[in-house]
Amino acid sequence: MTSETRSRRFYLVRHGTTDWNSEGRMQGHTDVPLNEEGREQARRVAVRIASLPEPPAAVWSSDLARARVTATTIAEALGVPVQATPDLRETMLGLWEGLNHAEIVARGDGELLQKYLHDSYTYRPPEGESLNSMWARMLGAQDRIRKEHPEGSVVIVAHGSCLRSLICATLDAPVPAMRAMWLDNASLSILHEMDKPVGRTKAVVLLNDVSHLTRATGAPLE
Predict the structure, then answer these.
(1) How far apart are CA 107 and CA 120, in angstroms?
(2) Average pLDDT over residues 104-124
(3) How far is the C-alpha of 103 from the C-alpha of 216, rounded, in Å?
(4) pTM exceeds 0.85 for this model
(5) Which of 34, 73, 124, 216 minimizes the number of CB atoms within 10 Å of its CB?
(6) Looking at domain 6-92+130-213, which of 3.40.50.1240, 3.40.50.2020, 3.40.600.10, 3.50.50.60 is its CATH number?
(7) Which residues have a catalytic role annotated?
C-alpha cells in the first residue's frame, strides 16, 4: 500500500429492535429505546464485530437512543468511545411519527399513505423530511467520518432508510433506489473504499447480514 492509496471500510449496523418496530409504528426522530430483544441483538452484533481479524478503530452513531445504545454496546466490546451526531438520525416522519398504518388512516391520511407505500420518494408524511434532505445530511456525515478516519475501519450505527442511502450512494444509484432495499434490525452491511491518485473506487461487500442473530443450531433468535 503506497502513501498515495488509502483504504477504508464502513461497517453499517442498523439499531436493534424497539417496541415500535414490533408494533409497526413510525419512529423517525422520535427517541424510542431498545426493547429486551433489541439489547440482545446489540450484544450479538457487538461480539461479531469485536471478533473480526482487524476490529474497527472507531464507532459513530445517530444520537437517538435506539442507535446510541446499540453503538455503545459495540464500542464497549471494541474498547473505543462512541461519537454521536444528529446528522446520522433516521428520516424525520413528521405528523406520522408514533402512528401505525391504521392510525394514519384514522387521522384522514389513508390516500396519502397508499401513495407513500407505493412511492415514498415523491409522497412524504405531512411535515416530514424529504429523502433528498436526509440523503444530503447522511453523505455529509460520511464525508466528515472520512476526514477524521482516512484509513482503516469505522462502525456506523444508524437507521434503516439512512443507512440505505449510504449503500445506494456506494452503488452510484439514485435516491429513489433506496425503496428497493431492506435492512433488518441489527443487520450488518459493509462498504469498502479505496482512494487512489486516479480517484475513489467503492464496493458493497456485504448486505443485510443477520447470521449473528441465530443460535449455534441455526434457530432464529426468539
Answers:
(1) 19
(2) 97
(3) 40
(4) yes
(5) 216
(6) 3.40.50.1240
(7) 15, 90
